[in-house]
Amino acid sequence: MRKQKKERKRKMQKSLKFHLIYTACVVCVPVFLALFVIVNVSIFLVQEKIAEDSREMLSMNVQMMDEEMQKVSSYLKEDNGVSPEMEGFLSGDQWEEYKSEVISFQKMQDIIMRFRYVDNYMCYLPKTGKSICRFTENSGDFILREAVEKTVKENPEKFYGNGDHWFNRKIHDTNLLMCSWGNEDVILCAWTTYDSLITLTKNWKKTEGSSYCITSKDGEVYTELPKEMQDLDFTRKKDGYYFSGDYDKYLIIREESSCSDMQMVRIVNWRDLLGALWTIRLLNVAIMVVFAFLMIPHLFVTLQKYIFHPIDLLEKGIRTVEQGDLSVKIPTDEGSTEMKHLITSFNNMVSQIGELKIRNYEEKMEYQKLMLDYMSLQIEPHFYLNALNLINTMAQMQDTELIEKMTENLSLYFRYITSSRNKKVTIGQELEHIGHYMNIMMIRFGECFQYEENVDESLRSFLIPPLLIQTMVENSMKYAFDVYGDTEIKVEIREEMKDKKCVVIRVSDNGKGYPQEIITRFEKEIPIEGTHIGLWNAKMRLQHLYPGASKFLLSNREPQGAVTTIVIEETEGKEV
């Protein structure tokens, strides 16, 4: 009793169920995974919230900037060459020019004081070379203003425009955001530095480790950034937000200006924002790493010994059986109780399959031999006695010439049957044999029937089973021949392209045609007894020789007559 209990305990400890339960109890992967997912989902939601709030703030401020720049553009369009002060500039009168200069100067002062985002306003007359410039304290140094004025004077045509859009222009190694309206009479320009625009963000609420900058829409940075942020990638064409920097440390949110070539970017050190969540995530990862180094090796060894290795043996055994080797035997020394039972059952099954396969093969070979012998016997010519009786009649009439012709065709007919019993013949040889048969029938019945051949000459060397066409012609002679009528028998052989290239052999006559019952039996593969047994044997013989690559069809034609058709794939009967 104690020995039996010990044996049962040993089997239980080696069972697959025991090891899976043991592994499930030891491994706490679901708990760690759940914790990891919760933390990461929380982090994702925080990121989404940060990105959404930042996008809203950027959108609001960029919209304010766009509105002001659009208003400045409107002033440029209003303050054009047809305004009174512009007419005064162009009048040629010194007093009028002076008054226009004073008025324009005051107007520029009003524009500069009214808008926060414009540092410089300039009016230039290309024809007279005069210019008026008004600026704020944020407009940059004197050298930069002189460089802008010089650039406008030297290349006035570059500043022609309608004032609808603010473009980035690099002058004196400084990027400027500039809008211009002009023609050959007058050029009006308004511009600001990006440093002036970015100073407005100093009063915006931002967390430690975050920053703002202005870039082109292609990602070129126009304002200064902290050293640790200078290598960030602002070139990505991606909606929403993305991460950049070492280990994707920074969250990048962008908002493009609708009336200029720039975009405002917020850079957030999202790990600082996450705080405790980031610490929990790191702790979770650390626990999982420790678990992986301590528990996974044990789990792997257990699964390898009791599951993976036996399954590998089974897989190799199955592959060996698939290749036709039924002598395989898998060892049952290792593995769980269930795996040993499974492998033992597999070995027994393979052994039984081998025995059944040998037995089935032997029975199949014996059956095929019997069928082929039977079909060959059924397909032999059945007019031997009639031919001998005809020779006897001709001998009594002492018609030696006709006897000579009859015996010659009959001997050639018999020679073909005996010599081609166990091999394939060409279509040409089969048609020559049919010619001897038809000569015998003509001697027997006279010229009360017509025989016609329509054969593709390239197919005469195509290989077919012997007596195949002979059986079809003989069937037409038997059921279509009418002593008092004009019997027609026609043999057609040609090449057709169906799903594959095929050889089509068709024998037709003008007799009464096939009964519908015979056609139905052939279509439904119901064996024939009595009439047309020769065609049924030919059909069965064709199926054995060309399984899946041939067809044997019966049909009737209008107004009357039978049609027997054989289709053989051309690859099954290569030329000799």
Describe the structure.
This protein has 576 residues and is α+β, with helices and mostly antiparallel strands. The chain has 17 helices and 17 strands. It has helices at 2-14, 16-26, 29-78, 84-89, 94-114, 142-154, 194-198, 270-274, 276-294, 296-322, 337-378, 384-396, 400-419, 427-445, 468-480, 516-523, 533-545, and strands spanning 120-124, 131-135, 161-162, 167-171, 174-182, 187-193, 211-216, 241-244, 250-256, 262-269, 425-426, 449-455, 463-464, 487-497, 501-509, 550-556, 562-569. A hairpin with a 5-residue loop joins strand 8 and strand 9. The longest helix has 50 residues, at 29-78.
Multimeric state of these chains? single chain
Shape: elongated
- Which residues sit in consecutive blocks of at least 5 with pLDDT less than 50? none
Instruction: Estimate the mean pLDDT confidence.
Output: 77
How many E strands?
17
Number of helices: 17
Strand-pairing-aware structural class: alpha+beta
Give the N-to-C terminal Cα separation: 79 Å
Give me the Rg, rounded: 51 Å
- Percent of residues in beta strands? 15-25%
Largest sheet: 6 strands, antiparallel
Helix content: 40-55%
